[in-house]
Amino acid sequence: MSDAVLLVAHGSRDPRAAATVTGLVAAVRGRLRARPGDEAGRALVRVAYLDFTEPSVGRALTELAADGASQIRVVPLLFTPGYHLRVDLPSAVAEVRAGLPWLHVSVAEPLGVAPEAGQPDLLLDALEERLRATNRTYGAVVLASAGSSDPEARRAVEEVAARWAERSGRPVVPAFATAVGPRVDEAVHGLMARGYDRVAVSGLFIAPGRLPEMTRRTAIAAGAAAVAEPLGPDPSLVRLLTSRGTSVRTLAAR
Questions:
Q1: How many domains does the chain have?
Q2: Which of 27, 147, 191, 251 is such that its CA lies 20 to 30 A from the CA of 244?
Q3: H/E element holding 244?
C-alpha cells in the first residue's frame, strides 16, 4: 500500500484549463519523485475535477484505492475556503469512504492560507513572478479573484492582498470578477484616483478560462499598465502544491 496525492481543480469548459492542470500534475509528480529519501517521493499523483471535466473526485479516489493507495492527500487548487471545500469535497470523500472505510483521506488547506512562520510565501512568489514576466513597471496592484458571496472566502482574498502589500511596500487591493465588488475596473480606477497612474492586475487563477479572460479584458479597458497571466506551471506554484501534498497541516480528515 502507498500514499497518494490528488490535485483537485475546479474544472472548466476551456480545454486550455485541463491542459494546464495536467502540466501541474506532471510537475508535482516530478518534484516528489526527485526526493528519493522521502516516502512522498513514491506517491501516486493524480488529478480530479469538481465540475465540467473528468475524472470526478469520487472516481479518482476510488481508482487510487484500487491502485493500492491507503492514504490520500487531497490538494485543492482553490485559493479560498468556500462551498467547494465545505460541502463538495467532504461529500465526495464521505461517499467513497462509505464503501472503503479503511481508506484515509485528508484535505489540505486552500492555497491562499498564509505559510507557517519562517516559511516562504510561495503564493506571493508565484504572483510576483507572473507580474515580472510582463516586463512592465507598476506602482500598485489589483489582486483579482473569481469572487464569492461567502464572507470567509472574500476575507481570504483580502488577507492575501494585505500580505502582498506588506511585503512589497506597494498598495495591493482586492477585486472580484463575480458576486459583490469591487470589480476589477473599479479597483483600477480607484488606485488611479489615488495617484497611481501605472496599475498592474494579477489574478488568483490557476489556468486560462472564462473568468481570467474577462478579468484581462476588463483590466485593459480600465487602463491597467500590466496584466499577469494565470499562474499555470509557475515553479513557485509547483513548490506550493508539493508542500501542500506533504504538509501535516490539514483542513479536514476522513
A1: 2
A2: 147
A3: helix 235-246
Based on the domain organization, do 32 and 109 belong to the same domain? yes
Q: Assign 33 to helix, strand or coil.
A: helix
For Cα atoms 81, 139, 154, give the angle at the middle one, nearest 5 degrees: 15
Burial 178-194 (b: 16+ CB within 10 A, else e): eeeeebbbbbbbbbbee
Cα–Cα dist 17/98, whole Å: 31
CA distances from 168 to 132, 200, 218 (A): 13, 13, 24
How confident is the model over 179-193, as pLDDT tens digits? 787 999 999 999 999
Query: Global pTM?
Result: 0.92
Together in a domain, 104 and 183: no
Whole domain around residue 141: which residue ranges? 134-227
CB 205 within 8 A of CB 211: yes
Q: Give residue 4's identity as a one-letter amino acid code.
A: A
Strand order in the sheet with 226-227: 172-176, 140-145, 199-203, 226-227
Measured distance CA(222)–CA(183) in Å, rounded: 11
